[in-house]
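Annotated sample (chain length 437).
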Amino acid sequence: MITSWKKLLSLALTALLFSFLIISIPSSQAAPLPLKQGDRSTNVLTLQQQLQTLGYFQTNPTGYFGPITTNSIIKLQADYQLKVDGIVGPQTNQIINKLLGYAPSSKSPKEVLGFYVGNEYSIPASYATLEKQKDIITSISPFWYRLDRNNPGKLEQYGSDTAQEIKQVLKLAKENNIKNYALIHNLLYGQTSVGRNVLHTMLADPNTRWTLVMNIFNLLKENGFDGVCIDIEDMHAWDRQLYIQFLAELSAQLKPAGYEIIACVPAKTTDQATGGWGDNFDFTKVGRYADMIAVMAYDEHSSGSQAGPIASPAYLEQVIKYTLAKLPPEKILLGIAGYGFDWNYGIGNSRYLSYQMAMETAKKYNKSVQWDSGSQAPYYSYTDQNGYWHSVYFENSSSLAFKLDAVNKYNLKGIALWRLGMEDPDYWRVIASKFVK
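Output written by the structure step:
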């Protein structure tokens, strides 16, 4: 009887100790999810404080998950392309944690990537800007190479740069500690369909894909590039997964050798097909293999659309929020335009123009540049010598400022400017005031 009593006491003490250990486990080791309407706890109080910090909860935190909290979660889920159910599950919690990891700052170190282009019709080459702003620019990507239309496993040189000019750019970048990423594209063959067909020929054949991978690898090695920028913008829907396979193979060859990969993706705001170039790009899968993703957050209005801002605040916010739901902020380069468009309503076309060209046109027709406060963009209208009415929207240092503030607000990796030499010269003062190299 005494022995049995001792056994019972021993078992009771063991159970008590085990219960104490369970109770003593820090709450951070077991996520209190899901949180939903009707819950009341300190975890709900913390959630409400987090939502308040992010601007989604406008009243005092109470610790009770009621309709106000539910509506706040629904708004956040809608903003970040999540399942809209008002419940804080793992995905919603992950987005909240990512957002809280952002450190809004008026000035922080950022990547300043400039796309480099040679002489382009009436637009000057990028060299003068690169040389003048070498202390602000952190990296460049020269628009020098594209898939060979006759043999897509090979690269052909694109643009007007001579061998001597290419050598000069490479030298300037290296001397000033500016990283240099060779840009590979499938654009401007004369007809829109050619680029996507050339890409398909490359992607569809494993041997051709591997030949291209090795040609890129050898190009980087022989010329001292720091990596590659894959600027594939136009592809067939059925090539979506093959493109990811190509990036995987490229990464497997380049990463062990120390080369970095930047991938350019067209901006989008939804996973639903809209008929745009962005439909066929899976941001999350691209991000598995690219070190940085340049999201081309411009052309809200473009050559084929009606006149309007190149990238308004509302559009930019939608693009950023969608992208953040797919990629970590430390991989995201926000695409910034240095250009504008002159829409001619008389003949129904448009002209691609630099900041300087926009200002010269305004001066020619004696027009004052106006400011659209809603879209945070400069614009003006005029009637040309043929009696045709024009509307011009472009970018300047004032429209740039709010875009850089968004980069800091969401703690993105930095910016990718298309292109050096087109921008308002005052861009660089604003960049220097917002970022630190």
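Annotation: The two ends are 80 Å apart (CA to CA).
Annotation: Residues 31-100 form a domain with the Muramoyl-pentapeptide Carboxypeptidase; domain 1 fold (CATH 1.10.101.10).
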